[in-house]
Each structure stands twice: as structure tokens, then as C-alpha cells.
Amino acid sequence: MATPFLNLVSNITIEVLFIFCASLLALSISFYFLMKNSLFAEIALILSSLIVVIPAQAQSDRLCPAQMQKEVEKIAQSPKLNHSRIGVFIQTNETKSQILASLDSDRYFIPASNTKLFVTATALKTLGADYRFATRLMSHNLPNDRGEIDNGLWLVASGDPSLQSATGLKSLVTQLKNKGVKQINGGIWTLTARKGAEIGDNWEWGDLQEYYGAKASPFTINENALDWVVSPSAIGKPAIFAWEEPNFANDWRVDNQSITVGADEVSTLQVIRPYGQKVAIITGQVPEKSEPELGGVAIPDPEANLLALLHQELIAQGITISLDSNSNHNSNQAQKLPPIQDLAIALSPPLSELISITNKNSNNLYAELLLRALGDRFHEVLPDDSVSGGLLAVNKYLQSINIPPDNALLVDGSGLSRRNLTTPKTIVQLLQSMASDRHFRRSLAIAGVDGSLTNRFKNTDAQGLIQAKTGGLTGAVALSGYASPPHYREVIFSIIINNSNLPSKELKQYIDAIALLLTRLETCE
What we know:
about 525 residues, six-stranded antiparallel β-sheet, four-stranded mixed β-sheet, 13 helices, carboxypeptidase, Beta-lactam/transpept-like
């Protein structure tokens, strides 16, 4: 990674080379005129040329704060953005901040995944950095002398986004076994305090099949998705489709309609999961010798999936499950007899770590489950809707930092909904309120280094100098965060483009061009 020092050395080298060439040109011209004019006149000409060249080149790479607005407008007025909307707000990170650029900064934009900034900031301030989700196995009593539990085993879930089969679930069953449990009489039941929808308001139909559109169920495991890999086969043969964890997809059907084509042809691979079905349909062509393509599909019924995986793990560790009529009870009776005995517990990592996954990797499921955890704090106000409760918590935090409620009209926690609206200025205000929170700052991706910015700003002056949250939907991209110019104080920025027909990759180039301006800032006299 290029350091500020190396960048500075590089700039100096370019400047010296430019000055040398310019001086050589001036000397050549002067030599011609020397035949006609006095020696003193020509020496004056050479010196004057150097005086002009040196300051001009030395200052060409730096950007004075007063120039920022004009430079931002140049990029925003690019012909390809004529039909798009672009909003920008840039200010210094200090108590009496200086506004460096403002372009439609008070108007509503769809923030896409910049929505996660509101949820993670509120979660840190409301739930605390040490908050952990808990998943429990409970019963009505301890196991008897024969190692039997009567009246069933209860899985009590709170929506831990990090719960995995290989770690958390295995640990739960191991704890159960260590308590002497050998048999469960009465089946397995689920219980949660969470209420409300498991998908966001106005999520698009096509997103619901994808791993990033997985349901925000309290009974979450393995991020409620199944990962797959598709590799080319021989030309004319179907591509090779495989689940990364075949044991988790035993009851899924695969309909492989794909074909392998020549290496010089374009990939048109699609993996579709019809809504609500455990079916993966593979279509399109895959070029021969191309790299394997990775993806994932959302699981249609997370609760049933978690119960099935728990059942598998119980059997694997030698615990049997009995459903005989003497010990079994129906669902209505089970709901009247809540469990009181803790048998096993799995805790998530602390919130400080969970928000890093949420923001750095732009994880939708994590954001949605954090929003619902916030809703638990308002269960007395909104007992039947954890989503509305979470949005209420966000609004309350925004009011506490003097952001009016109508400046951020949010309907979900991830930004997957196009009904989310906010302004670039509001995002900067939020970021300024969190600027000194080390957990929040560490949760943001670093330019050219990690997270969703791993492959952006590499080998540029911005690498390592920008911490930001990305955002992207079709026709809408965003980047908001902090920049630390080598020769200027820290700045906070939000850049959003909406209503575009350009590919996201191209839109990001315009956003990155504005972000790169920030690294050139210098104090000018």
C-alpha cells in the first residue's frame, strides 16, 4: 500500500521532471533569441520562465478548500449524468465545521445500504457495544435419572445473525449432552419474543430469492442462506453445480438447464430459486475454463430449517427424540406451558463486532436483525411489531442529536427498500455524531484494504485514507464516511447518485472521482 510519504516523494519527482523539461524548452528558445538579443535579456527570460513554472506545477496536485465546490460541480455535470440526480455534502470534522461542498444536500435521495449507518449507530448508542444475542435450549425441568426430558425441548431464539451450525448449534447440543440429556420426550418447540414481518417493506420480488434478501427471522442460522458454486464442464455439457454444504440441502431439488460453451463466449449464468420453494434452477451458459462462480439462495422457511438442523445435531451427538402420545402435547398446550429451566446457551459476539460485519461487508441480514433487536426496547409501546419499534429507536436517537424525524424516512434496516429516503447532509450529521466512537469507526470499510472497499481506490492516493459505507441498488449508488487528507484536517462526506440508467460500476467511478478530491485538500493561504 502506498504511504503518504511515498505519494509525496512521487509528486515531488514528477514536479522536478516537469520543471526540468520546461526549463530545457526555455533554454532552447532562449538560445535562438540569443543570436539576436543581448545575453542579459536572455538570462532574464530563462529565470522568468522558471519562476512561472515552479509554483504552477508545485500547486497543481493540491486542492484548496475554496476550490472544492467548483471541482465537485465539474464531475456532477458530466454529460453521462445529465439525467441522474447527484447529491453531495462535504464538511470538516470539527465543532465549528466548515462546509466545503454542497450539492442538493437537503433533498431526499434513496440511500441504499447507507441506511445501515443509521441502524448501527443507533444500536451502539442504545444497546451498547457489549450487547450480545442469546440462543437457548430450555425445558420445564431437568433431566430425570434416565437422562430424559419430559414435555419437550424448547429452542428460544432472539435473532442472532451470527449463529452457525458448526459452532453455536454444536455447542448448544454439547452443553445439553454434558447435562446428562439422553432423550427428549415430546418433541422440539420454538419460542421467541420477536414479532412482525421478516422481510422489509417493499423489497423487490427478485431480491427475495437471493442470499442478500434472506428473511430476518428470529430463528436464523447460517445467515438463512445456502451457498452454491458453479464451474464449467466440457463444451456442450451442463455446467457443474454444487452446494457448498450438501448436508444442509438434502431436501432441495436442483434443475440444471445450463450449458458449457467456448472460452471466448460471454457468461449468462443464472441461479433462480422460485419464491417459497426449495428448488434451484440453473440456466444460461458458462464459458469453458472460466473461474468458478459463487453465490447463494435464501432459505424459504428459516424456522423449519433451524429445527431440522437442531434435530440432525441432536441425533449426531446421540440424543434421541420421542414423540409418543404419553409425553407429546399439541401446540396450543405447549404455548400455555413456557419453559423455565435453562439447559444450554449460545451467545453471539459483542455488538461491536457484529456492526463491523454489518457495515464493512454491507450485510443486509445483520442490519435487519439489529433493527429488530432495537425494537425489543419498545415492546411495551409496540408489542406486536419489532420492526416499527426498531425504527422508533432510530428516530429517537436522531432527535437526540438534533436531526428532525423527517430528515430520515426509513422503512427497513438494510437499505434494500427503495422507500428509504434521507439527505446527504443528514448522513454527514449522523457521521459527525459518531466520529469519536471507535467501535463505529472500525466498522467502516477502508479504501483499498477491506470490506466492500477492498477493490476500490487501490493504488490511489485514497488507499487507506478513507473509511466509508458503500451503497448500491440498480440505478442508485452511495458512499459516505470520513477522509483523512495528508495535508488537511479530517473531512466527513456523503455522495449519492440516484435515478440513473448507467451500470453501477460506472456510477461508482463518478463517486470515486469526487472522493479522490478529498485526498488532495491542503490549507491554502
